[in-house]
Amino acid sequence: MSTIPQSALVKRYNLPVPRYTSYPTVPFWPQTIDLMEWKERVKSRFASINSRLGISLYVHLPFCESLCTYCGCNKKITKNHSEETPYLGALLEEWKHYRWLLGEAPVIREIHLGGGTPTFFSPANLDILLTELKSESIIHPGFEGSIEGHPNNTTKEHLEVLNRHGFKRISYGVQDNDAQVQKLINRIQPWENVVNATINARKAGFKSVNFDLIYGLPGQTLESMMLTLQQVISLKPDRIAFYSYAHVPWTSRGQRLFDEKDLPNASLKMDLYMLGKKRFAAAGYCDIGMDHFALPGEALFEARAEGKIHRNFMGYTTQNSGMLIGLGVSSISDAGNAFAQNHKTLSEYYESVGKGELPVFRGCMLDEEDVRFKKYVLDVTCKGFVKPEPADLDLVKQLNGNYLHQLEIDGLIELHNDSVEVTFLGNHFLRNIARIFDLYLLRSEHEPKQERKFSQAI
User: Fold this and answer.
1) Which CA distances in Å does 373 have to 22, 23, 139, 249?
2) What's the sign of the alpha-carbon dihedral 97, 101, 102, 105?
3) 338-342 and 55-61 beta bridge pairing
4) Is 239 found in the same domain as 167?
5) Does 37 share its domain with 4?
């Protein structure tokens, strides 16, 4: 066990580090893509896994009625709901193109609706979207449908439509309940709305209600966080995602509206995290891994216990279909040994789909080394244990030098002859530990200094 004070660990490991929702991480992808190569890899992967595992769909619905200034997601701020119809048309055209490419009926194992604010769309339009996505497809017996809902505008009608399509999990973006914090981040959200949205979801048949919380927001204090935690725990959400606020004003212009003096420093931010972690544990929640907590018996808890948990661009999931197709502006697809990202602006997305093309503009084709190290990063974040190929472990030791030794001295890992194991303390620093398997980041450190790419780890 480490004898290093927590404050010293925070200072030492508060480095710019990726969140590792993919490997290689997006900033290291080329800014172009070989479209023919992408299509071939999609077809090959699909043929190998469709009947056995099925596929996952991520659908990005980017519209929001107001700007939450902390948000780093791709979104368009508008109150014009006539935007819904042309966007749905483009989504379904994109899906039609993938259907033609795949050649046979896909087995859909998972659909996740993310945003933006998916509940910006009317219940009727969500019904159209889901009906068309599932049309002429095979629905896997273990299908999971999930959506990111806004407590202010998720109605009973939304929930009834979603439940009718087999959706059983909803994540509400709670973030923080303190009035002053909500004002600073421009997300005014009365607690009564969260309560009503939670009750309505459970009445509609949703089996898992997740709350997203963020620590490190401007104006947060230990006292304000305590009140938020008490209120949240009183509703007993099945899962809680407790995210570190990623301050990246060089890519998210809304964050430039903050006075950085209002942001908690690294030490306070760690105190906020530890407060949440202790409160969740006292309420019966189990630490699933990076950012996530779940009640015993919940599907994510069971998947973790059975070693079947997976991590992708949506965070932790119980589903690992082996292939993720992303639909919509800025969405990312994962074909196992290749990634592709759609155009980031609506105009470019509409133009590409209108020409009958897949609207991808960049991607990353993985070689055999990339595929192996992708698995190592996933093993850190999902299992806390990695057993690399001997030559790969030698390379990791060579590239990390004293950093690997420091992780071991500080009690964050146990380094064995043939494996790396994350300790209980190390669970607080998973991003820092996953970094030791990030060949792209490690090799780039020997190159001339480049622009900032990642948020601080803490």
Assistant:
1) 11, 8, 32, 30
2) positive
3) unpaired
4) yes
5) no
DSSP 103-131: -S--EEEEEEEEES-GGGS-HHHHHHHHH
Q: Per-residue pLDDT for 231 more than 90?
A: yes
- Higher per-residue pLDDT: 454 or 397: 397
Sheet bearing 420-422, strands edge to edge = 385-386, 420-422, 413-415
DSSP classification of residue 193: H
| Structural domain includes residue 334 | no
Contacts of 365 (CB under 8 A, 6+ apart): 34, 37, 38, 41, 337, 338
DSSP string over 195-258: HHHHHHHHHHT-SEEEEEEEES-TT--HHHHHHHHHHHHHT--SEEEEEEP---TTT-GGGGGS
Q: What is the residue range of 75's domain?
A: 22-327
Task: Clarify whether residues 229 and 138 are in a common domain.
Answer: yes
For the segment 22-66, what is each residue's pLDDT rounded down to a tens digit? 999 999 999 999 999 999 999 999 999 999 999 999 999 999 999
Same domain, 208 and 283: yes
Q: What are 183-208's pLDDT values in tens digits?
A: 999 999 999 999 999 999 999 999 99
d(C-alpha 54, C-alpha 146), whole Å: 16
Q: Which of 327, 348, 377 is the last residue of a domain?
A: 327
Could you give the angle at the alpha carbon of 283 between the alpha carbons of 278 and 287, nearest 5°? 60
